[in-house]
């Protein structure tokens, strides 16, 4: 989201365009069909209002953590539009066949892996 009202408003599109089963909103960016269709002709104020709604709404759970069972959204929420986990330090190779961990469990896993290697705990990205 832009820092000032004079900055251009970037599109919320994350290039994962797919409508929900009812055809009401995009599963990638979570905008409604009407918001998507109107984006290029919307005023910056209208675009900021869409962003405000998207930020205020919790991400729907599309994955469940195999460690704690918590629901979380995988594949979005990151600072650059990708998955939130891409914002964390990339220090561990992924385990073959493993499922994604929720944000809390992944941070705990990273800290444990650092401790086991005698390294200082990672800083969040």
Would you give an account of this structure?
The chain is mostly helical and 125 residues long. The protein has 2 domains: 1-57, no CATH class; 63-116, no CATH class. 26% of the residues lie in helices and 3% in strands. A two-stranded antiparallel sheet has the order 1-2. A hairpin with a 6-residue loop joins β1 (63-64) and β2. It is elongated and about 55 Å long. Pfam families: Cys_rich_CWC, DUF1289. This is DUF1289 domain-containing protein. It comes from Microvirgula aerodenitrificans.
What overall form do the CA principal axes indicate?
A: elongated
Mean of all residue-level pLDDT scores:
79
> First CA to last CA: what distance?
18 Å
Give the tally of β-strands: 2
Helix content: 25-40%
Rg to the nearest angstrom? 17 Å
Structural class: mainly alpha
InterPro entries: Cys_rich_CWC, DUF1289
Protein name: DUF1289 domain-containing protein
Pfam family, one: Cys_rich_CWC
SSE blueprint and pairings:
Layout: H1 33-38, H2 44-56, E1 63-64, E2 71-72, H3 103-116
Antiparallel strand pairs: 1-2
Keywords:
3 helices, 125 residues, mainly alpha, 26% helix, 2 strands, elongated, 2 domains, two-stranded antiparallel sheet
What's this entry about, in short?
The protein is mainly alpha-helical.
